[in-house]
Write a structure and sequence with these properties.
Shape: globular
Distance between the termini: 33 Å
Largest sheet: 9 strands, antiparallel
Strand order of the largest sheet: 3-13-10-9-8-7-6-5-4
Strand content: 15-25%
Structural class: alpha+beta
Number of strands: 13
Number of helices: 15
Radius of gyration: 21 Å
Order of helices and strands: HEEEHHEHHHEEEHEEEHHEEEHHHHHH
Length: 446
């Protein structure tokens, strides 16, 4: 199905976020009554034939390797951690056109104006030049870049509305080898201790070592002079609320293309969303998982159970014998039945983030809590740090890549965390209850 350049489905994510439109001023989003961003249009996403997995995914869940893993983790909101090179510059809104004639219906100018209007609703102008985006409106790289830009803006708008205090700092960075990204971070707000939403759009050549690691994942890629051309883009977010009764969320969605020496191209999508509560709230868990399941079910009944198990297996802290949180969905190497059908699935998942998460924060942001409950939150944050630094391949690859942008890689880490020697919760306590779930994942929707 053709995908118009200037439109995305107006799903529940937009409806949940549109009440909190904001504007960018001096590098921050500030809430206001009106907004420049108009609601997206619609694009039907009928029932899919079923989504297929690449070689790695068919073999079962595993943590990615190489630059593909940097994408898979996007882990510290790095947005392609291994590719996050370059300097940081303050982002600006896409410039408004001035002195332009009103285009006649159906003219190229109409499409350009529609794209420009849409870009003014983003946190910053797209990484790719607008002229290039207009030249290839039907290309998947264009469609995915606009999706991640829109997802970033919608999530930031929803978070800013809920917080009502601190604004987002918006940093635009460039990669000298090709591409760049936009990192949006809110710190020390009324509701959120730290919230980051980052996008990356990068391209260039993979090294022979990266190509070798991809071959180990089942991708037989032919290099030219030891190099492979690639394009990659994604959005990633980790949000840490202050209140221990409000859960942490992580999500990322990404697209990867590789061109072999003979011109043959390989593509795949990956991503997911998972919840990490400090205390178990059955109603919250059911709401989160049910919202994700509804997004998955629109594209096939087998997707949610498959990707839910993959999520439980991926976010496993082996040395603790427990999961990082209560899961969600996770997938990688999604490469069939078609680009368009997989894109529509990823779009549905991205649009599910706000309705799955924001109601939980609104529900718990003003809950009373004790010093003991705050202490337990800090200890659980320590587990979050352990997973990201010890097990997430994307984070590790980025940290050991010369010239990588460390600030972006580590944006997923909380402002505060705690470790205590031989800490163990009392039997039958609320703390012991969540540990039981982390050690033995549950089915939340049946």
């Amino acid at each position: 199905m053709a995908f118009p350049l200037g439109r995305l489905s107006a799903g529940p994510c937009w409806r949940a976020a549109r009440g909190g439109c904001a504007e960018l001023r001096a590098g921050s989003w500030r809430g206001r009554a009106g907004c420049l961003c108009g609601p997206p249009g619609t694009a039907g996403a009928g029932q899919s034939r079923g989504l297929g997995l690449g070689a790695t995914a068919r073999g079962g869940p595993r943590r990615g390797t190489g630059l593909a893993a940097a994408l898979a983790g996007l882990a510290g909101l790095a947005g392609l951690a291994a590719a996050a090179f370059g300097h940081v510059a303050r982002a600006e809104m896409a410039p408004k056109s001035s002195g332009a004639r009103s285009p006649s219906p159906g003219s190229p100018g109409e499409e350009e104006d529609e794209l420009a209007r849409r870009c003014r609703g983003f946190m910053a102008s797209p990484v790719t030049d607008l002229r290039e985006l207009r030249r290839r409106p039907g290309d998947m790289k264009t469609k995915m870049e606009l999706l991640i830009m829109e997802t970033q803006a919608q999530v930031c708008q929803a978070l800013a509305q809920v917080d009502g205090g601190a604004g987002f700092s918006v940093d635009r960075w460039e990669r000298k080898e090709g591409g760049g990204g936009i990192s949006c971070v809110l710190q020390d707000g009324h509701v959120f201790e730290k919230a980051g939403v980052s996008i990356s759009v990068v391209h260039g050549h993979l090294s022979e070592e990266a190509a070798k690691q991809m071959r180990n994942r089942g991708k037989n890629l032919k290099t030219k002079d030891g190099k492979l051309s690639f394009s990659a883009m994604g959005v990633s977010s980790v949000i840490h609320p202050k209140n221990p009764h409000a859960p942490t969320i992580h999500f990322n969605y990404r697209y990867f293309e590789v061109e072999e020496a003979d011109g043959n191209k390989h593509w795949w999508f990956g991503g997911g969303s998972d919840l990490t509560p400090t205390y178990l709230n059955q109603e919250d868990a059911v709401h989160f998982h049910r919202t994700l399941k509804e997004a998955c079910d629109r594209h096939g009944p087998d997707l949610y159970p498959k990707f839910k198990k993959w999520c439980d297996d991926y976010f496993y802290i082996a040395h603790r014998g427990e999961r990082r949180g209560i899961g969600g969905i996770f997938f990688d190497d999604l490469d069939s039945p078609s680009k368009e059908e997989v894109f529509q699935f990823v779009q549905s998942c991205a649009q599910a983030v706000v309705p799955a998460y924001i109601p939980l924060v609104k529900k718990h942001r003003d809950d009373s809590f004790t010093p003991q409950e705050k202490l337990w939150q800090q200890l659980r944050r320590g587990r979050y740090v352990e997973f990201n630094l010890l097990y997430d391949r994307g984070t590790k690859f980025g940290l050991f890549t010369p010239g990588s942008r460390i600030e972006s890689i580590l944006m997923s880490l909380p402002l505060t965390a705690r470790w205590e020697y031989m800490h163990s919760p009392s039997a039958n306590s609320k703390e012991a209850e969540i540990l039981e779930v982390l050690r033995h994942p549950r089915d939340w929707v049946h």
